[in-house]
């Protein structure tokens, strides 16, 4: 058996607001939205480079993994930090910093509580 990819599936009570925020602030996209006959998005995919994240338009249940941390590799961490800061200054948090385990990182917590950790470089094994 060969694994080919992992697709995170995140729950947002308002998928349209979340997708708009992810596109505007983090620079993700484009997104594909399925409204299923209603006015609001029920299911969606949003591109993050060559990867994608699936989104559900409902609040998560208590047992559906609220402690997620999503790591996104970028090729220019400082440029991405400045992009986030320009789009939404309060979302940017602390500037990128070199970690003792290798990469340079910064974290954004979206308005729904998901932690997006941006990395430049790889972790160095101990």
From TrEMBL:
Residues 2-121 form the VOC domain. InterPro entries: Glyas_Bleomycin-R_OHBP_Dase (IPR029068), Glyas_Fos-R_dOase_dom (IPR004360), VOC_core (IPR037523). Gene3D superfamilies: 3.30.720.110, 3.30.720.120. It comes from the Bacteria. This is VOC family protein.
